[in-house]
Amino acid sequence: MKNNIPEYILGISAYYHDSAAALIHHGKIIAAAQEERFTRKKHDAAFPKLAIQYCLESAGIALEDVSDIVFYDKPLLKFERLLETYLAYAPRGFRSFVTAMPIWLKEKLYLKKVLRTEFEHFLRNKELNNKEQVTKKHAVNLKFAEHHQSHAASAFFPSPYSKAAVLCIDGVGEWATTSLWQGDKNTLKPLWEINFPHSLGLLYSAFTYYCGFKVNSGEYKLMGLAPYGEPCYKDLILEHLIDVREDGSFHLNMKYFNYATGLTMTSKHFDKLFGATPRKAETDISQREMDLARSIQAVTEDILLKMVRHVHQTTDNDYLCLAGGVALNCVANGELLRNSPFKDIWIQPAAGDAGGAIGAALALWHQHYGQEVINKDNSKDLMMGSYLGPHYTNDQIKEYFDSIAAPCHFHDDEALYPLLAQYLDQGKVMGWFQGRMEFGPRALGGRSIIGDPRNTDMQTTMNLKIKYRESFRPFAPSVLAEDVADFFEHKTSSPYMPMVAQLKSALLKSVDQSKKGLDKLKQVRSLLPAITHVDNSARIQTVHKETNPRFHQLLSAFKTLTDCSVLINTSFNVRGEPIVCTMEDAYRCFMRTEMDVLVLENYVLLKGEQGEFQDTQDWQQEFELD
Questions:
Q1: Residue 156's pLDDT is what?
Q2: Do residues 458 and 430 lie in contact, with contact meaning Cβ atoms separated by under 8 Å?
Q3: Mean pLDDT of the chain, nearest integer
Q4: φ and ψ at 71, to 5 degrees?
Q5: Same domain, 85 and 221
Q6: Does pLDDT of 132 surpass 60?
Q7: Total structural domains within the chain
Q8: How far from chain centre, in Å, is Cα 138?
Q9: Which of 179, 333, 431, 540 is 20–30 Å from 169 (CA)?
């Protein structure tokens, strides 16, 4: 620490879902990762011991070299909200109260002590701490940021903007569910907030639950299902469930919800309103669920658009930053980009709780220590492409495959990319493991499964034989940044897949408009059918030579061969499993699925050349399906 300014700050999020760690050095983000990637437990909420270890190793330091550790929310405020909510609804919610209190009284209420104990154990463990021994007594300097402050900081400080409105929308933090901030250079000023139990995130999660998907992970499915339905329940939602004002503020009718004090998201009144009990997980999806998904998606988009227009009218800003779980709704984000009055929008790629680790560290650096943000020009952000995780060298890769006697082939770059383009053109599905692992929920060409979007069978093949997930789930395209306007109704940079755009009309094909529900899935809608959703949209990633040169080279080689600079890009994992992190994870996933090719840096493995795979785990039982 120099002049009381820390050199390293470690931010962590934990104990709810998607725990993570992030390390900044003199205000620059240098490493970040979710704990799930190392433990292989999806949405792991435990203390992020292994993520912290990775961050320290990536910087070549020990925990005692970190001046400040900052947690992403304030547990005592959250406990206050919990108690006040139970008192307000008493005697309702007694079962939920009895369930929650032992956990709080044992751990969460004393989280500061729990965290100190965890870090002291970390200091004593020489393997974790990256040093043979701790050379001096080190007091853990632990601080706490507020939940929405962490979200806001994660969105504004890494953004390209020196001045912007910052909107945070999620389920709930301590009290806030929606908050607006004014970002200006190194300051973040809170302007207003909407508090629990009135929550747009929890409203969407209530429909996720009611449609039979898992809350906090199944919201993507609800969003993907929406285009198959009609918004026939929209008026019913607006009449009974939520009162929306012209400025986008809202008030929920809690008669229909059970999340404030109960063990479920919705109440018996919700069931009566929509004419049935919640769909059971893994049962057939009916037109009713599709229509419900479309309806709540439409309501969400309308509320967000009203809110964002009001924000623009009442603040002096040309730019908008978004964070919080609702900011991962890429369909709504696309609507905001096209129809809001802001010049541009930047969305934190790890917009959920994991990103709070980055935000907490940056909030401390800029707001507490008053350090300036540098090198902002409204065009380039400071997230390093979100490539903030571990990476492996060709030597490490060769050593691993030699150790398990897995046949592999080395190709230098000049030979590698044309060869891989040929494989993709032949319809092969490829595991792509390159550079540093992505931080956040999206695969961005670091840990991806890729394929040819022109192939009419590719969506079904990848969903059912590779990802082992529902057939209706769409796949995202990655496109050369310089070519995005040739394929999509989109012109700006989109490196993190934050929003959807329509395909160019010249690429579309006529279809039978009378088809309903999942029958829409069977129609070839465009010249790129594998990435075209049933509403002719796609969640796009623009690939930039500056941030991911190897993925850019692969797309360029595919373009040279096929005149198409678009590839399918989906996360390198199967359903219920976190995205792969290590070489071992990648090989295991490759051998468990019907992928044809695996590429790790310059090494290529072909499925047909591999021997029998001795799988020591029942992976379909190991991972929790969601």
A1: 98
A2: no
A3: 91
A4: -95, 150
A5: no
A6: no
A7: 3
A8: 35
A9: 540
Checking DSSP bridges between strand 476-480 and strand 541-543, what pairing results, if any?
parallel
Q: Is 107 helix (H, G, I), strand (E, B) or coil?
A: coil
SS3 state at 193: strand
Give the pLDDT score at 398: 97
Q: Is 395 helix (H, G, I), strand (E, B) or coil?
A: helix
Residue pair 420/430 in contact (Cβ under 8 Å)? The answer is yes
Domain end residue (candidates: 319, 350, 381): 350
Kindly state the percentage of the chain with pLDDT values over 70: 90
**446 vs 134: which has the higher pLDDT:** 446
* Domain at 118, CATH number: 3.30.420.40
Is the distance from CB of 172 to CB of 201 less than 8 angstroms? yes
- Mean pLDDT of all residues in 275-284: 93
219: three-class secondary structure by DSSP: helix
Sequence-separated (6 or more) residues with CB below 8 Å from residue 253? 240, 241, 242, 243
Give tens-digit pLDDT for 558-569: 999 999 999 999
Q: Model's pTM, two decimal places?
A: 0.93
Measured CA to CA, the distance from residue 121 to residue 398 in angstroms comes to 35
Crossing angle between the packed helical segments 330-339 and 287-314, to the nearest 10 degrees = 40
Indicate whether 524 and 481 sit together in one domain: yes
- Burial label for 402, CB within 10 Å (0-12, 13-18, 19+), is exposed
How are beta strands 541-543 and 566-571 bridged, if at all? Answer: unpaired
Tokens of 24: 């900044």
**Pairing mode of beta strands 20-25, 28-34:** antiparallel
The DSSP H or E segment spanning 473 is: none
What CA–CA distance (Å, rounded) separates 405 from 400?
9
Its domain, for residue 64, covers 8-149
* Separation CA 448–CA 445 (nearest Å): 5
145 within domain boundaries: yes
Report the pLDDT value the prediction gives residue 129, as an integer from 0 to 100.
Answer: 62
The two three-digit tokens of residue 452, written as one number: 């040819």
Our CA angle for 529, 532, 538, nearest 5°, is 150
- Per the CB < 8 A criterion, the answer to whether 343 and 318 are in contact is yes
The single-letter code of the amino acid at 71 is: F
| Beta-sheet strand order (sheet of 603-606) | 409-410, 603-606, 597-600, 430-433, 447-451, 566-571, 476-480, 541-543
Residues 6 or more apart from 340 whose CB is under 8 A from it? Answer: 305, 308, 309, 312, 320
For residue 414, how many other CB atoms are within 10 A of its CB?
A: 7
Stretch 278-291: mean pLDDT: 94
**140 and 166, same domain (yes or no):** no
Sheet holding 187-195, edge to edge: 187-195, 176-184, 163-169, 319-323, 344-347
Which H or E run includes 396?
A: helix 394-403
